[in-house]
Write a structure and sequence with these properties.
Blueprint lengths: L1 H14 L5 H13 L4 H26 L12 H20 L5 H9 L23 E5 L16 E5 L13 E2 L6 E2 L4 H19 L3 H12 L30 E10 L2 E10 L4 H13 L5 H4 L5 H10 L8 H9 L2 H10 L2
Antiparallel strand pairs: 1-2, 2-5, 3-4, 5-6
Length: 343
């Protein structure tokens, strides 16, 4: 027991010593061996805070250099030891959490329990001009018979700052004869779409939660919907692409497709609907007409199994697609809708 106590004390001392390279190497090994190690993440965050603190102290020293001119004690050796003292002071201050910066870093980078930190592309307050390279996923229609490429690709829409906002932010129309409305607020978005998600889920015998989550993820809570050529909304809330078998309306947009590590720009065609209600009906038909989604549909009302089945079937190449849907399903906005509609 005394040996364990001594080792623990030694490790604590190393963690607070700025020039301990062995401690840094140990931290690196912990991060490589277990990427979900919260203690390693916290130690790394503290190191980052110490770097910031050291820069702050260095700036303060530089501001006082004018007073040191002509001082016989102001030598290169004095500066050397002052710099060492500042570095060690920065480490000790970061270990005590004086700034609180390490706590913020841990909260932002923690893979679990981080539902309250919404990605920038899903924040309703994010401006259109900030979305210069926002990653989005577009669903492919069934591939032609001569092609074996059925997997869904990821795309990055690149927006020019000079491009007018209405070209990309389109209003939605719930029904063919309904009034158009501008989406963006998560709760309002889910409230409006919940009845259509319920109807689609009942038809496919699945949970309505992942259906709503997909609509939210694919459109950024309804703020980013591919427009038609006349500027009207395509009402395509699932971003399902239109291939040669699609005989309905279309909406085209410029996209950048990533095939592995190679990116290429292309003009992509997407299905266009008269209403969001039609988009939900076609979404159900899209899943039921593709054999690769059989396993996902067999999950029934199990929302977790359903989203995992979608990812296993290749609905999205994003390895985090299912986890993103789970986070949306567990969000505060979704919990409110669950209680309101009994989902």
């Amino acid at each position: 027991m005394n040996d364990n106590l001594s080792n623990h004390t030694l490790e604590q001392a190393r963690a607070g010593f700025v020039h301990d390279l062995q401690g840094l190497d140990s931290l690196r090994s912990r991060g490589l061996n277990n990427q979900n190690d919260q203690s390693a993440l916290r130690e790394a965050a503290k190191h980052f805070e110490s770097i910031f603190m050291n820069q702050l102290l260095s700036s303060m020293r530089s501001a006082n250099e004018v007073f040191a001119e002509g001082n016989p004690l102001n030598t290169q050796y004095t500066k050397f030891y002052q710099d060492m003292q500042d570095q060690q002071m920065a480490v000790e201050l970061s270990q005590s959490g004086s700034l609180g910066l390490a706590d913020l870093i841990v909260q932002q980078l923690s893979p679990q329990g981080n539902d309250q930190y919404t990605p920038a592309e899903l924040l309703p307050t994010a401006s259109f001009g900030e979305q210069l390279a926002r990653t989005r996923q577009f669903a492919n229609s069934p591939a032609p018979m001569q092609s074996n490429q059925n997997e869904r690709s990821n795309y990055v829409e690149r927006y020019d700052q000079d491009e007018p906002t209405p070209a990309r932010v389109s209003s939605l129309r719930l029904t063919e004869n309904g009034d158009a409305w501008q989406a963006g607020d998560p709760v309002a978005f889910l409230e409006r779409l919940a009845p259509y998600a319920q109807q689609a889920a009942d038809e496919a015998n699945i949970s309505a939660l992942p259906v709503l989550a997909q609509a939210a993820l694919e459109t950024g809570w309804g703020r980013y919907v591919v427009p038609r050529s006349d500027g009207e909304s395509s009402n395509n809330v699932f971003n399902i692409k239109a291939d040669r078998s699609w005989d309905g309306d279309r909406a085209a947009t410029r996209t950048v497709e990533f095939d592995g590590t190679v990116a290429r720009s292309e003009q992509a065609q997407f299905r266009a609907y008269q209403s969001v209600a039609e988009s939900f009906r076609d979404y159900v038909n899209f899943l039921q007409s593709n054999p690769r989604y059989e396993q996902a549909l067999e999950a029934g009302r199990d929302a977790i199994r359903f989203v995992e089945g979608l990812q296993d079937a290749g609905y999205a190449t994003d390895p985090e697609y299912a986890n993103k849907l789970k986070r949306i399903m567990n969000s505060d906005a979704m919990q409110m809708i669950r209680e309101q509609f009994g989902l």
